[in-house]
């Protein structure tokens, strides 16, 4: 293990021990809140947090005994909900492709590498994420138990893919499990399930639910980071897709699908899915169908190119990159329920740009619309998991009864959205679940 990783782990342990003894009440005084209705900041407010939730918000000072209380003077800064990324792959996004192919994908290796990435994500102000595919359950458990620092995670578990689908990660020498009886490496590590036919799809969905999936991720169309499937292909028959939806709905949750094309997405809608990931090749007719059926569209504004990108992937991504310039404004025009995410894969250096990617939405949305999307709206999508949500409670809002996932911003992000792109400098306080993970202001 590298010296830097050892130091990071040591500091995490020390910090976790400190916050475990932290008092359960926090009073944040003299802060302005974002009113999404008026699209303005409020007058000064006083916010009392007890345990994991916001107990009281007042326009007048709140009287509270200093015993068992952490008091923070907000100095007129902006208190806003924690940021939410609705499309991440914490494991795939923290590892390079050569690392993914190594034989050392042990739990210890993942904790050291991915755990550090999760901690950095929290310190960028992302207090919640929806992980839409990968071996995430051990990392999530470690964060929830306080062994690692990181955001709340809504896990999908292994992606579910047909043979030759977007989640078929087999190397050329790996043969079909059905014909040769050997489970592929990616399946052994919990990255994907290759499932064909109704019975196998049901088993794959139920297996993920057994491990604690909050929603199910199904590959319904071709992808740009997979070897076998062109972007234009449609994946899974209607019956197979319906099987996934039925199994998820029996557990009170939903299926979201990876798909780009109108044909794949129209089939998914017919099957009863509740959310579409990507959709950069959508046409107006299908967008109207999405809006009519009250389906979420979880969109990204993907990076155009990077020096380390595989040339074949660059070619496959070209129509997707061209399409994303068109689909965002069309989706807004037809009133589609939009969520935002980053979807970084196999290029860990991109993670540090997570906040900066929020600015890419300024082509089509106002600052207040963007902040609402990456907090309130993404929070609504997370709660689509219903009783399978691992963290019951309201997110993406600063209001009484909501979960205390908060950021204190040094300035007015409604006027200057760039404030969100420099969390080290501009995020004075970061709080998740009522626990303070960063506080650069003096405590009284």
* Content-based structural category: alpha/beta
- The total count of strands amounts to 19
Number of domains: 2
Stretches where pLDDT is under 50 for at least 5 consecutive residues are: none
Mean pLDDT: 92
Please give the alpha-carbon distance between the first and last residues: 40 Å
**Proportion of residues in extended strands:** 15-25%
Looking at CATH, the homologous superfamily of the largest domain is: Metal-dependent hydrolases
Q: What global shape is seen?
A: globular
Tell me the Rg in angstroms.
22 Å
Q: What does the largest sheet look like?
A: 9 strands, mixed
- CATH-scheme architecture of the largest domain: Alpha-Beta Barrel
Helix content estimate: 25-40%
- Count of individual helical segments: 14
**Fold-level CATH name of the largest domain:** TIM Barrel
Q: What is the CATH top level name of the largest domain? A: Alpha Beta
């Amino acid at each position: 293990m590298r010296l830097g990783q050892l130091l990071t782990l040591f500091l995490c342990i020390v910090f976790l021990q400190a916050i475990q003894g932290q008092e359960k009440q926090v009073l944040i005084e003299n802060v302005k809140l974002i009113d999404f209705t008026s699209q303005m900041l409020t007058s000064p407010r006083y916010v009392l947090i007890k345990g994991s939730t916001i107990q009281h918000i007042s326009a007048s000072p709140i009287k509270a005994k200093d015993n068992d209380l952490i008091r923070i003077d907000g100095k007129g800064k902006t208190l806003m909900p924690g940021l939410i990324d609705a499309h991440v792959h914490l494991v795939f996004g923290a590892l390079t492709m050569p690392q993914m192919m190594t034989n050392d994908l042990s739990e210890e290796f993942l904790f050291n590498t991915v755990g550090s990435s999760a901690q950095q994500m929290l310190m960028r102000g992302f207090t919640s994420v929806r992980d839409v595919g990968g071996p995430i359950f051990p990392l999530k458990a470690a964060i929830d138990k306080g062994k690692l620092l990181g955001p709340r995670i809504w896990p999908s578990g292994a992606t579910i893919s047909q043979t030759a689908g977007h989640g078929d990660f087999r190397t050329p020498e790996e043969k079909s499990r059905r014909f040769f009886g050997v489970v592929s490496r990616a399946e052994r590590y919990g990255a994907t399930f290759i499932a064909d036919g109704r019975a196998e799809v049901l088993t794959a969905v139920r297996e993920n639910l057994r491990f604690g999936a909050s929603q199910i991720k199904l590959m319904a169309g071709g992808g740009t980071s997979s070897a076998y499937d062109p972007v234009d292909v449609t994946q899974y028959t209607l019956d197979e897709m319906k099987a996934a939806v039925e199994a998820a709905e029996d557990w009170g949750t939903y299926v979201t699908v990876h798909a780009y094309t109108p044909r794949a997405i129209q089939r998914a809608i017919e099957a009863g899915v509740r959310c579409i990931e990507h959709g950069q090749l959508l046409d107006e007719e299908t967008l109207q169908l999405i809006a009519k059926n009250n389906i979420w569209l979880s969109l990204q504004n993907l990076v155009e190119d990077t020096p380390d990108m595989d040339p074949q992937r660059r070619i496959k991504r070209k129509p997707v990159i061209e399409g994303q310039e068109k689909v965002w404004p069309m989706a807004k025009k037809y009133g589609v329920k939009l969520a935002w995410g980053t979807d970084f894969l196999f290029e860990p250096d991109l993670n540090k740009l997570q906040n900066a990617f929020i600015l890419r939405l300024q082509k089509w949305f106002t600052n207040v619309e963007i902040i609402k999307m990456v907090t309130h709206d993404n929070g609504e999508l997370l709660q689509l998991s219903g009783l399978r949500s691992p963290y019951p409670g309201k997110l993406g809002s600063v209001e009484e009864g909501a979960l205390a996932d908060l950021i204190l911003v040094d300035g007015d992000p409604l006027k200057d959205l760039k404030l969100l792109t420099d969390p080290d400098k501009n995020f004075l306080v970061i709080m998740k679940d009522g626990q303070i993970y960063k506080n650069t202001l003096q405590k009284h």
